[in-house]
Design brief:
Blueprint: H1 3-38, H2 42-46, H3 51-57, E1 65-71, E2 77-83, H4 84-97, H5 116-129, H6 139-150, H7 159-166, H8 171-178, H9 184-195, H10 199-202
Antiparallel strand pairs: 1-2
Helix pairs in contact: 1-4, 7-8
């Protein structure tokens, strides 16, 4: 290389490193937002492709929510919804990445999906930076979402619907994991609703008649 090219080489390297770091930061932000929106398992997140996302990103303005199909345990398919906020983060990441790969979240090796271990590292480091070091990892988003749905103050979601959103094989699994965490306020509301039932629903007009007694 010429003296001028040689002198400029460190600057070029620095610019390349900065761009790579920028892409990684944008990717990490998008990952956290998607986990927050969907409660996906890490294996489901790493398997996401750009197909349905790219269609949504072409819309102007971006849709409020976009439904995507994911494949969970046992090959079970289900629908989850990604918000506009997450779509904006994904758009920024893909624009900076400038990569034609159909993989949504690329890892450190070009053309390969991000690894489960890297997703865990991203979430743990982000939690520590935010001062929530006891955040256990990506699965914590899943638990948080389920409990929010199950214990919604205004309109608690039926356990069968929570099961469908999380991709559990059976509502029994959902119940075992999350029923012990039912909020006291929800239990109290259920008890008050039961107490408000009209008396006629508890006994028929003939309940006390002599003819009905054994």
């Amino acid at each position: 290389p010429s003296p001028a090219e040689a002198a400029d080489a460190p600057n070029n390297l620095a610019r390349w490193q900065i761009q790579r770091k920028r892409v990684a930061i944008l990717r990490n932000r998008a990952i956290v937002h998607v986990l927050y929106d969907t409660g996906l398992r890490v294996s489901e997140l790493t398997g996401l492709t750009r197909d349905e996302i790219d269609r949504a990103l072409k819309e102007t303005p971006l849709p409020e929510d976009v439904a995507i199909e994911v494949t969970g345990k046992g090959g079970r398919r289900r629908t989850v919804w990604i918000t506009r906020d997450s779509l904006e983060r994904i758009r920024d990441y893909l624009q900076a990445r400038q990569d034609p790969s159909n993989i949504l979240f690329i890892g450190s090796k070009k053309g390969t999906p991000i690894t489960r271990q890297m997703v865990w590292k991203i979430v743990k480091e982000g939690a520590q930076a935010a001062g929530v070091g006891d955040f256990t990892g990506p699965h914590a988003f899943r638990h948080w979402l389920a409990r929010q749905l199950f214990n919604d103050e205004e309109d608690p979601v039926p356990i069968e619907d929570v099961q469908a959103l999380l991709g559990h094989a059976s509502p029994t699994t959902t119940r075992i994991i999350y029923a012990p965490h039912t909020s006291k306020s929800r239990l109290h509301r259920a008890l008050k609703r039961a107490r408000k039932r009209p008396e006629e629903t508890l006994s028929s007009p003939d309940t006390d008649s002599e003819s009905d007694r054994p």
